[in-house]
Amino acid sequence: MVSIITLTDLSQHKTVQDLWVAVHGNVYDLTSFAADHPGGIDILVECAGTDATEPYDYAGHGDDATEAMVKFKVGPLEGHQVKPKNAAHSIKAATTASGVSSWASGSGILGSQSLLVVIMGVILMLMGLVGKNVSLVDSFLGGILAASSVGSVGLGWGYFKFKETLKHQKEVFEYPAVIKRRKR
Ligand code: HEM
């Protein structure tokens, strides 16, 4: 039977000669590995006897580390709460999606505005064709003027919507704070 390790048990193993750390709900005995740790022995000694999940993630460990740590596993840590996987990614996905959808709905409205503008232009041109007091050139210019003003409003609105999308992404990239691993 696998015995659950309490934080008090864990805290008893905090020296170079007896070095345990907990990562993501499991406790690892890194005594034999510490000297070979690519990130250095000091950092392991610093977090020995504690739940080092946060610094572990912060260091940006990859698959090599995940594979290597299996053989050092002692057992599960008591009271570990499993965080929803890829929470940060879900936030990013949701925020980006909302940004994209607002952009998409923006362009949808832009599309209908353009249609409105074309209809207005056509009406004005037809007025020019049938009307006695309006010349074809005047009505055509009127159509262009109306089209460009409505079009500018639409473009301005679309631009602000697009800016919102960028703003969302910036916020997403700012959270959570992750320092990328150095390339070797
Ligand atoms: C639990 C067992 C651990 C194993 C098996 C492990 C393994 C590794 C490996 C293989 C690397 C090289 C980079 C990679 O391939 O990911 C690495 C780098 C590193 N590790 Fe660990 N590690 C462990 C725990 C920790 C802990 C608890 C810390 C605490 C802060 C830590 C801090 C670092 C740092 C700072 C680097 C260097 C990152 C860099 O500069 O590229 N490691 N580790």
TrEMBL record:
Annotated TM spans: 115-134, 140-160
Database matches in Gene3D superfamilies: Cytochrome b5-like heme/steroid binding domain
Keywords of this entry: Heme, Iron, Membrane, Metal-binding, Transmembrane, Transmembrane helix
UniProt-recorded Gene Ontology molecular function terms: heme binding; metal ion binding
Keyword flag Zinc: no
Family from the record: Belongs to the cytochrome b5 family.
Highest taxon of the lineage: Eukaryota
Native source species: Podospora fimiseda
Tagged with keyword Disulfide bond: no
Pfam families with a match to the protein in the record: Cyt-b5
GO cellular component: membrane
Domain Cytochrome b5 heme-binding span(s) in chain numbering: 2-78
Official protein name in the record: Cytochrome b5-like heme/steroid binding domain-containing protein
